[in-house]
# Entry
Amino acid sequence: MRIEKCFGIDAETARRLIEATSVMTNEKSGDNRFQNTKVYLFETYAVLKMQNLDVRNIETQDTDLKHLERLAETLLDLQVNGVHVVPILAFQCCDGNGYIIQPRAKGAEMYDRARLSDKDYMLGRVELFTHAPQQHFDAFVTDIIKMTNAGVLIDFVGKDNFFYDESIGFQFIDLNAHHDYVYGLCDDKPHAERVAIHGCFLPCWFDTMPQYRDTVSKIMSEMTDAECAQLRAQNRHIFEKCKTALVNNGITEEAIHEAVTDVKFYPQLRPFALI
# Structure
């Protein structure tokens, strides 16, 4: 049985985009252990071809896609209210596999995981965020809090789940699930401010999954002393912008200090001389 639903796009356009992918090569791909995804990019749209589209949050069956429909409506509502989400415009599913259509995010990935070993790329991105305006960091924290309170799960593991554009700031993509409590898997709602404290430091180039691997030390070993000094200085500047954004969103200095001194969670604090 095929299930189709359109929100911010008409059905004919959605079907035409999906059909066009049959003769295209995907430009991006990802695999989160249960949903292999291939991304096809058009001028203003992105089409995601996904396995197990009828599964939410790894273990929650969504056979009739009602959870996905609810999520799409929530994302559109957040966007209308100024949150920088990339919403779901349409989806199509047949026998569990299918497609999601979104507007194409502006700018580029916060950090492209395929280029994390390229020191020139990394230095360039750090330079960009060093000069990004404070209001972009403030909005990043505000958006995390609003999305969390709306029950939307933000995947902070992959930094390419976030895009940055110099004109509009940080944007959130890959929003395909709610928090567990929405599915009745637990009673506890996540504390939005705690989520923001841990999530907002992503622009400071903390490694993807820093608890389990360290590409920071490797790439710094390939830099000159001057490049390492530049990286540390600029990351300290970004780090302070992230902290300021938390304060500007009403989060206490005590709560911030408790989180950012957790070296187990942020092992790169010392290589970057941030503490």
